[in-house]
Task: inverse folding
């Protein structure tokens, strides 16, 4: 499946410290961030900021599924945010699902928990973009991708609802801007060989193609290859933030 570049809007909300909308692969999420704000004494952490994540479904009220996703998001964002910079405060992240793939709850061959994984990349991307529009200090950025594997062992990056319904396993991986693997959520049956292929594909989607350096033996990004391949999610994130910074600094040019 050919991936359509995500649609991103920064700071669409007025009454938040930071916000963003993210649309990709059938999902549209809007997120808002407030903080650091005053925290109730019972939730106060003496040496770091507390992080509260609220996920609201497209319709109805939240369930166990949303609580499970909130815990994953909270644990991951704690690695991204420099929580030690604002002790005894609270950082609130609210994510509203606007639209989702229609067949997201009908995944055959996998337990019901697998439907939790499909929306995670969009949630991660939205939260990351919203945080970047605030003044909250971050240790790093992150990107996330979804890869499905069918019964024949073929990989489907950015799978459609139809591909997900035929998948034997579904995988969500998130990488930091430093190249570290932050999150792995896998559901279904798969071998270690398949998982290695999933890891390589997800890393390529998030961080871009790599090639071994003949001198040092390390993996390095090749600029020519990067231009030939579709932009990685990290490239999209970087260009989006650069565009935002350029717009906000235009007033300096007008003073010149």
Result:
């Amino acid at each position: 499946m050919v991936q359509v570049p995500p649609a991103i809007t920064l700071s669409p909300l007025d009454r938040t410290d930071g916000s963003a909308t993210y649309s990709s692969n059938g999902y549209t999420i809007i997120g808002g961030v407030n903080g650091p704000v005053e925290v109730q004494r019972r939730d106060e952490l003496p040496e770091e900021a507390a992080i509260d994540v609220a996920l609201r479904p497209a319709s109805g009220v939240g369930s166990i599924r949303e609580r499970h996703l909130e815990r994953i998001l909270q644990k991951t964002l704690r690695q991204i945010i420099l929580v030690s910079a604002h002790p005894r405060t609270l950082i609130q992240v609210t994510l509203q699902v606007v639209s989702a793939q229609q067949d997201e709850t009908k995944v055959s061959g996998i337990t019901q928990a697998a439907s939790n994984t499909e929306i995670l990349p969009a949630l991660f991307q939205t939260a990351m973009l919203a945080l970047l529009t605030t003044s909250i200090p971050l240790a790093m950025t992150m990107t996330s991708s979804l890869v499905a594997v069918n019964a024949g062992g073929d990989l489907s990056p950015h799978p459609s609802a139809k591909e997900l319904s035929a998948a034997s396993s579904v995988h969500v991986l998130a990488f930091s801007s430093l190249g570290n693997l932050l999150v792995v959520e896998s559901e279904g049956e798969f071998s270690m060989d398949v998982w290695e292929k999933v890891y390589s594909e997800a890393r390529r989607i998030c961080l871009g193609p790599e090639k071994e350096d003949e001198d040092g033996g390390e993996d390095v990004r090749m600029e020519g290859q990067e231009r030939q391949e579709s932009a990685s999610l990290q490239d999209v994130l970087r260009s989006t933030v650069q565009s935002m910074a350029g717009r906000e600094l235009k007033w300096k040019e007008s003073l010149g």
